[in-house]
Specification:
Helix 11 packs antiparallel against helix 12, helix 15 crosses helix 17 and helix 16 packs antiparallel against helix 17. By secondary structure, the protein is mostly helical. Helix content is 48%, strand content 6%. It folds into 3 domains: 130 residues, Rossmann fold (3-Layer(aba) Sandwich); 121 residues, Serine Threonine Protein Phosphatase 5, Tetratricopeptide repeat (Alpha Horseshoe), CATH 1.25.40.80; 178 residues, DNA Cyclobutane Dipyrimidine Photolyase, subunit A, domain 3 (Orthogonal Bundle). Strands 3-2-1-4-5 form a 5-stranded parallel sheet, sandwiched between helices.
């Protein structure tokens, strides 16, 4: 019987620069390539609805890419702790390959699976295919985990050369069909797409999931958005960010590919990006690394305050206000534009993410976990590390967090980062005719002026959900009370 190897795709849905896949190919044995949809939250958080849409199209493209090289992708649904041992028993592979994951439940699952597989006589080989540095590699001088970004990133970069990305394999030898064991399913049977209603039209217009989509997006960023990135990255009205985060989240491009593509473009003169543009972009990649460092050492990052003093914070339970925030009906245009961009495209500009998060936490005083959960369900790029780490950063409850008393003024944020109101006009079309002078604070215009532009507060567009100054004072008072009881 021909010896085979088993390769398990997870958050690494690509063929290029996939260290675990490259190692499997190097065995020169037939490959049984699989992906498992685990709908439970037993081994990490179940995917949100937007991510399920992305996954469907990503698997479709990955399957076609694999078929073009002679291989076949087998899809399964179920508990990996059951599916994998059944496959190993039926296939009897010499080796099982996978890319490492870092959520505590995923780590526990992989550790148990490795013991089970190796007890049956097969070997397990795991590789880092998601990060520049493993979370445990970067420590303080005392050997402890890092809690502040700047020294973390300095230590992570010290004497470390990012390896060059490896090319995709030229051929994938398929394994013979398995007679016994779990039966694979079809992509259609996985039922990942939304139906009744299908709300994914905006996602389809905005994105091309898959490895080729990642390549096109990276090339477009280098040619159109990289130059001036340091200054323009905070402008949601401009094409100023890479939009690579969903592709990194699903592993359709590796961080090493992104790192070296931007470095090569800068050093070759392919782009007019400055050294400062490159430094700031790399530091943004560093925040993703830091988030995984935090997740590995703070496994309950999505549910437990890193700074435990916030356990006593007096959060409001207000479903009506929460729902208004989710639907982009707060009466604050920059906030509403962000929430509607999220619903329509599965994405939100990073500066606006901070604005809408600050508004939920500090203007409405609603628990950051409510916002984190909504982003998990609606963001294409939500991952178990960056999503909760960023929410805790805004809340002031995380490691190296912004102080709670830093409260964004949504009107000033809009005026500064969307000065002509183009972003608001795109996603809040009922305000499209307002002049830039009042578009970020329509209640400051006279009723007759609003009426002349077809706007009636409380009717065509909501009046402000809360008063900014009063909400700010209430938030500061709540924070002061927390400090006094700590």
């Amino acid at each position: 019987m021909t010896e085979k190897v088993l390769f398990w795709f997870r958050d690494d849905l690509r063929l290029t620069d996939n260290p675990a896949l490259a190692a499997a190919v190097q065995t020169e044995k037939p490959l049984h390539l699989i992906y498992i949809v685990d709908d439970s939250s037993l081994h990490g958080r179940a995917l949100g609805a937007a991510q399920r849409w992305w996954l469907n199209h990503s698997l479709e493209r990955l399957s076609a890419d694999i078929a073009a090289l002679g291989g076949q992708l087998h899809l399964y649904r179920g508990d990996p702790s059951v599916v994998i041992p059944s496959l190993v028993e039926a296939l009897k592979p010499t080796t099982v390959f996978w890319t490492r994951r870092y959520h505590k439940e995923q780590v526990a699952c992989d550790t148990a699976l490795k013991a089970n597989i190796e007890s049956s006589g097969s070997t397990v080989r795991s590789y880092n295919g998601s990060l520049l540095r493993e979370p445990w590699e970067v420590t303080s001088k005392l050997g402890t985990p890092m809690r502040v970004f700047t020294p973390y990133w300095r230590a992570a970069r010290l004497d470390f050369v990012v390896p060059q990305p490896a090319p995709a394999p030229s051929r994938l030898a398929p394994s013979t069909p398995i007679r016994n064991g779990p039966k694979p399913t079809s992509l259609a049977e996985l039922n990942l797409l939304p139906r009744n209603p299908d709300w994914s039209g905006g996602l389809s217009e905005a994105w091309i999931p898959g490895e080729n989509g990642a390549r096109v997006t990276l090339d477009r960023f280098i040619s159109e958005g990289f130059a001036g990135y340091g200054d323009s990255r905070n402008r949601p009205d401009l094409p100023s960010t890479s939009r690579l985060s969903p592709y990194l989240r699903f592993g359709e491009v590796s961080i090493r590919q992104v790192w070296h593509a931007t470095e090569a473009a800068y050093h070759s003169g392919q782009t007019r990006a400055s050294s400062e543009d490159l430094r700031i972009f790399q530091s943004e990649l560093g925040w993703r690394e830091f988030s995984y460092h935090l997740l590995f050492h703070q496994p309950d990052l999505s549910s437990i305050n890193v700074q435990r003093s916030f356990d006593q914070f007096n959060w409001r339970n207000d479903p009506v206000m929460l729902d208004a925030w989710k639907r982009g009906q707060t009466g604050y245009p920059i906030v509403d534009a962000g929430m509607r961009e999220l619903w329509q495209t599965g994405f939100m500009h990073n500066r606006v993410r901070m604005i809408v998060a600050s508004f939920l936490i500090k203007h409405l005083r609603i628990d950051w976990r409510e916002g984190e959960a909504w982003f998990w369900d609606t963001l294409l790029d939500a991952d178990p590390a960056s999503n909760p780490a960023s929410w805790q950063w805004v809340a002031g409850s995380g490691a190296d967090a912004a102080p709670y008393y830093r409260i964004f003024n949504p009107m000033l944020q809009g005026e500064k980062f969307d000065p002509d109101g183009r972003y608001v006009r795109r996603f809040v079309p009922e305000l499209a005719s307002l002049p830039s002078l009042v578009i970020h604070a329509p209640w400051t215009a006279r009723p007759l002026e609003l009426s002349s532009f077809g706007v009636k507060l409380g009717s065509t567009y909501p009046a402000p959900l809360v008063n900014h100054e009063r909400a700010r004072e209430d938030a500061l008072a709540a924070y002061k009370a927390l400090k006094e009881t700590a």
